[in-house]
Every structure is written in C-alpha cells, then in structure tokens.
Fold:
Amino acid sequence: MKRVSSSALVAVIATAVHLAAMGVTVEPAQAQGQQQQPPVTAFVNVNVVPMDEERVLRNYTVVVEQGRVTDMGPAGSVTVPANAQRIDAGGKYLMPGLAEMHGHTPSGAFAETVMFLYVANGVTTVRGMLGLDGHLELKRRTNSGQLIGPSLYLAGPSFNGGSVTSPQHAVEKVRRQKAEGWDHLKIHPGLTVEQYDALARTASAVGMRFGGHVPAEVGIVHAIKMGQDTFDHLDGYLEYAGGIDSPLDEAKLDHAIELTKQARAAVVPTQVLWEVGIIGVGDVDAMENYPEMQYWPQRQVRSWATRVRQQQQNSNADQARAFAENRRILLEKLNDAGVTVLMGTDSPQIFSVPGFSLHREMEAMAEAGMTPYEILESGTKNVGDYFRSQDNFGTVGVGQRADFILTNSNPLEDVANVADRVGVMVRGRWLSEEAIQERLAEIAQQMSSTTD
Structure:
C-alpha cells in the first residue's frame, strides 16, 4: 500500500473547508439558546459518575447555579433551594459531558446546526482545528450561552506548506493569531524544519499551544522535542516505525512512545475517520445508511460515498486492513504505556457526523483494548486537565462547569450506555432528551428537503 499521499490528505482537509461554502439553508437554533432557564437546577437521587477516578457515587444530589456545580453530596445532606428546577434522577447516572478534541465547523448559518448536533450527543466541549471566517464570533455566541452549543477552543487558519512561505512568515503568523484571539495553532503537512522550528519557538514565547499533523520533513521525534503537545490522527508514529506499508519496528515505536510520555504530550486518535477516509476500510453501503446521515446534507453524503468507493478501487484491501490493524496496535501501545489519549474524530468529515461520530469512535477505542473508564476519561477528565489553565470542567464536582450527560444506565459498564440518554446539560442549561429529539427531527426534515 502506498504511503498517504498529500493529495489524499488535502482532499480530506478540504471537506471541512467545502462545508463553509455549501450554502445549505437551515433554521438556526438560536431561539432555543435564548430561552429563559431556571436560576438553579438540582439533580436529586442520582448516581454520580464523577470521572475523577473509577467509581460511582450513589444516591447523590447535585446543585447547579449560574453554570457551575455549587453543592453536591449524599441525598439528605444537601439542601435543594426552593426555587430550583428539580430533576428526579433516581436510578439514573450523571457523568461529565464529552469533548471532541479534533473538530471542524463550517461558517454561516449551518454552523448553528452543527453546534446543536454536538450537544445533542452529549458533546459539551470542542477543540476546533481549522479556523474560518466567523468562528471567533461563533465562539463568543456559544460560550456566552446565546447559542446552544459546546464550549469552543479554536485554532486559527492552519500552518502548512501553502500558507507559510518562510521561517519569518511563520513567526509573523503565530503572533498575528495570538493577537486575533485564537486559542491554539494547527499544524498541517508541508512545513520545512526551519519553518516548523520558528513556529514552535515563537509559540512557546507567546504562550500558544500547537498540535495536529507532523510534517514529513520534521518527523515525530523532532516534533516531540520542539514541544508539539498533541499528535492528531496518531500522525508520525507509523511513518517513523515503518508500520504503514511494512512491519512495525517495535524498538523505534517504543522509543517514540517513551518520548511522548516523557514530554507529557497527548494523542488524538481519530481512528474511524482515518480508516474510512484515508485507508479506505469500511462498508460504504452500510455507512451511507447510518441513522445519523439523515442529519447531514445528502449531496455531501453521496460525495463521501463516491470518494470512499474510488479509494477502495485504487488500493489493496489486504494492505489497507494491515494498515488499520497497525493503527489499532499503536493506540493500544500508547494507552498501555500511559500516554494521554484525548477523544476526537475529525468531524465533520467522511461519514463522521458531529457528535454522533464520538459514539462510533468509542467503539474503535474499545477494539484497541481501552476499558470503558479509559475511553470516557479520554473525553472528560483528560480534556479538563488539558484545559486546566482556562477553566474547570471534565469531572462532576463543586466548582466545575456544569456540562453533564444524564443516562439511564451505567456508562462505566459499557460506553454504549452513554447514548442511552435522559438529557444533556451544557454550561448549566438543561436539555431533555425529548427536546433534543424534537430538534433533531426538525434538522432531519430540513436536510431531506434541501435541494441540490
């Protein structure tokens, strides 16, 4: 099997950019986001899955005010304010909301629908990885509660072989994005070592993180040493250890993993998207008929199907499956070694619909040997730790941002139980599953009536 070509990668990257110009007309969810909420909400008689460690706190009361947990403890020990909205959660499970640590968002009105799709699936935090016009305003609206959506942490336009022309240009671009208010920097392929190093040193000087791909000329070892703090798509590891089109060099792979751990860097696997969109593994007919495809523009779904079928026709199926298996082994090794794993899917991309894609990603993480707690930790506590300097979230505890999923069944027993929802709370705003499904039905109707 050939190594991933730059043209194939650009095609995947272009999907997110293409969405910005799709012109899909949808009814925004802004009105829902502006509905008056009770000043206090209390979950009573609930089983709390705090995600600070692997445990369940049974029959608790959790009080939320102004978007934060203000009190929690065993039922009977916590006084529920008289003006509180009481959610009787007897037998239910309250866990932190999930995070999408490699997300994309189109610009324009369609972005509002994407924001709701995230929240509808319990995704209450998104690290955006490709800045577009209008994204900083979108962040202001969602993070302030004007629009129903996850809390956003956004990268600006990416640093790549086409957008950076020299080391000095890289320096200027870092400083400009810092001044504009972007949260972090996104790395794409094509940078030279000199350009990359200039970016890295300047990012360190101005206090900006950077993550994403590993440019081929830079390589995983040098990127780790220069301070890149997330390696998205598990990029760089198999290239270094020979596991794309040849057997893994275990010694080199172990070396790269140990360096990652020592540097306290993290990986964002995006297993499902990479297998489908880059490697070309998967049943296209089945993916076209995933239930979540009803919430996405149908011409885009058809385009995804065409692309993957062409990919499969032009590749060796056995080699593709071997590549996918090496990625599974890599994730298992990284997790077993104690490297921080952050949940992410690269949605919206090929057959990865925002929010829904995290539930499919969790299945792939389980196939790589991760336990339910480890999988959920990658999308909750680990993300809260990553953003600790900016906010407190990712666990259920006093002072934490009130981002929750209320489920009917214990998510620590099976991650599929995360989708067995009663409702979602985002920054203290409660959305019942009934309200979520009503809005999803509207979106499905709008997508089905959208003309080509």
Remarks:
- DSSP finds 17 helices and 16 strands in the chain.
- Residues 1-8, 10-35 have pLDDT under 50 and may be disordered.
- The two ends are 36 Å apart (CA to CA).
